[in-house]
Every structure is written in C-alpha cells, then in structure tokens.
Amino acid sequence: MKIAVLAGDGIGPEIVAEAVKALRALGLSMEFEPALVGGAATDATGDPLPAATLALCKAADAVLFGAVGGPQYDALPRPQRPEQGLLRLRKELGLFANLRPALIYPELAAASTLKAEVVAGLDLLIVRELTGDIYFGQPRGIRRLDDGQREGFDTMRYSESEVRRIGRVAFEAARRRSRRVCSVDKANVLETTQLWREVMTELASEYPDVALSHMYVDNAAMQLLRNPRQFDVMVTGNMFGDILSDEASMLTGSIGMLPSASLDADGKGLYEPIHGSAPDIAGKAVANPLATILSAAMMLRYSFGQEEAAGRLERAVAKVLAQGWRTADIAAPGERAVGTPAMGDAVVRAL
Ligand code: IPM
Ligand code: MG
C-alpha cells in the first residue's frame, strides 16, 4: 500500500502526523511518501501542485491529504493560490465522487449547537460531485464592460454522463444503507439542475429498491437544521455539496470530526478531513486530528478493501470519545481539552 502524504498548510501537518501515527499502529505494510501541496508548495516552488507531487499521487495507491490555504496567500494570482493545488489534483486524478459522511457520536450530541434530541442518532452521507459544476465550468473570469465597470462571471454546467455517474455512486451507497436518496438541486431556477433532476429521475428506474426524492437546495439547507435525521444519502453538485457538507458538519458538533473520501471510477482515492487549514490555530497543537484519522479509515475501506482495519480505527475513535478525550473544538464548557498529539496517542492506545 503506497500512500502519498500531502500535509499542506496550516494545521495540515499537525493532523496528518496523527493519522500516519494511527495507520502505522495498525501494523499493516504501508509506505508513506510525503510531498508538497498548497501554499507550502507555492512557497517552495511557485506552484501549488508541483509536477513531482502530481506524479507521486498518480503513482500512489491513495492520497492522504491535510488542508490547504491561509490568509498570506489570498492576494496571489489565482493559479498560485493553495486551493488551486487541491482543485487541480481532484481534476487530474478524476476524483469525481466525494463522500462526506456525517455521523454523530453519542458522547458529542451535546457538542452540537442543535438540541441533542434533534441530532441524536444522525447518520447521513453527502455524495458531492467534485470535478464539474461552476467550480470548473468555462468560460469564467473578470472582464471589463463597455461602461467601464468590471463584471465577474462563472459557468454552471453538467453533462448527462457526469450526473449519471455521481447518481450511480449515490444509489449504490444507499443500497448499503437505508435505501433512500435525496437529490438536491435548484431545478426551479437553474437549467443545469433541471437536467440534473431529469437524469436522476431516469436513473432511479434502475434502482427500484431505492427511494428517490428531490429537494431544492434552499429547502435542504433548512431541513438539515429542522430535521436532519430524515436524510439517508444526499446527492448534489459540487457547489451545493460544498456548502451543505459544511452545514452538516455542525450537526455533529464540530467540523473537526468529519472525514471525506474523493474517489475516481476505479476506487482510487484522496482522503481528507472536510475542515480547512484553520490558520488561526495552526502551530498551536490544539487542532482535532479525528477527522483526518477517520479519513484514513475511509482510505483503508475504499482504496484497500481493508474493512477490518478500517473498523478497528473507527472503533478506536469511538472509544477515545467514550473515554472522555476531547480537543478544544468538542470539549463542553468545563471539560478538559487535550492537544493534537495527545489525542493521536489516545487513539493509538485504544487500538
Ligand atoms: C472543500 C473545500 C474546497 C472546496 C476548497 C479548499 C477549494 O472547501 O473541500 O470543501 O471548495 O471544494
Ligand atoms: Mg468546503
């Protein structure tokens, strides 16, 4: 198992170190190859996705990713911005299927800003399309209008085949869960998502055992707060999925708990926590490494078929939470919070 390790910026190196520690503790035969990405890569090479990093990721069996970005990079021209490193990597590796589970651990129900009775037992999977939509659509840019002012423009677009392949991922995932798919769109306003809805409806006939429903994205944002447990699998486009998955993370108490997998057509994947680089707490060793450790568990499951090891890692995380280990983001008022390495060590001991 050859794993490219792209720690990136901000808290990235701190949390990735704990995930590597946990993976090593499993005693499997794994090789870890570090490489630069994001702002760290721009600083060193002028490119947020250097050719050597891309080549390593293509050759590796899976990519373990930290986070990219930071305020010091915000003024750079877009091609050099850290986020471009991640977006290009997703595109170059064909990682079109982004799985973002939101699971509530019983001990953390009180950490959510929502009432415990609303979120208790939550088990939701957001399937986000990751290589299309307004994120990648052309044309885009900032242009000068005849009247002298500037205009910004981006293009939302989805082809039928793009919708169908992410739809299949969602229906297949639902078959392993509660067999319900909610497709999220804005078909009342946007042609792109009208087509999205039509294709999802066609596809549903191939999955008679799965119930498909449709929801407008504004309503979905509201329903996630009103009654999140109504959802099993949510499938949506790149931008809506970006927004809804951040929202869903807070149902679980902290964005510091949510892992993700970004998969290509053959199950090769990039695994990253859904939170960002958190520049405000970078270097302080207080970040929560659990989302990255849970991402490593997804890697074992989806890229390596190591269901047993994935389960061990997930159970170790559940155990440290049950034992009362908390980082600052998930500590209730008055509860003692430990730092990043101590949380990683607790997971290793639980293993
Ligand atoms: C995410 C992030 C990225 C995205 C950024 C860092 C480009 O917010 O993975 O959700 O918008 O996809
Ligand atoms: Mg996001």
**Low-pLDDT runs:** none
Radius of gyration from the alpha-carbon trace, in angstroms? 20 Å
Q: Characterize the overall form.
A: globular
Helix tally? 12
Derived from helix and strand composition plus strand pairing, the structural class reads alpha/beta
Give the topology string: H per helix, E per strand: EHEHHEHEHEEEHEHEHEHEEHHH
State which percent range the strand residues make up. Answer: 15-25%
Helical proportion, percent range:
25-40%
Please tell me the overall pLDDT: 96
Q: What is the tally of beta strands?
A: 12
Strand neighbour order, sheet with most strands: 2-1-3-12-11-4-5-10-8-9
Distinct compounds present = 3-isopropylmalic acid, magnesium ion
Main β sheet profile: 10 strands, mixed
Distance between the termini: 20 Å
Question: What can you tell me about this protein's structure?
Answer:
The structure is a single chain. With 351 residues, the protein is of the alpha/beta class. The model has no long low-confidence stretch (mean pLDDT 96). The longest helix is centred in the middle third of the chain and has 16 residues, at 160-175. A ten-stranded mixed β-sheet has the order 2-1-3-12-11-4-5-10-8-9, with helices on both faces. The protein has a two-stranded antiparallel ribbon with strand order 6-7. It contains twelve helices and twelve strands. The protein has helices at 12-25, 39-45, 51-59, 82-92, 116-119, 160-175, 191-204, 217-226, 238-251, 290-302, 307-322, 340-350; strands at residues 2-8, 31-34, 62-67, 97-103, 123-129, 141-144, 150-153, 180-185, 211-216, 233-236, 261-263, 269-271. α8 (217-226) runs parallel beside α9 (238-251).
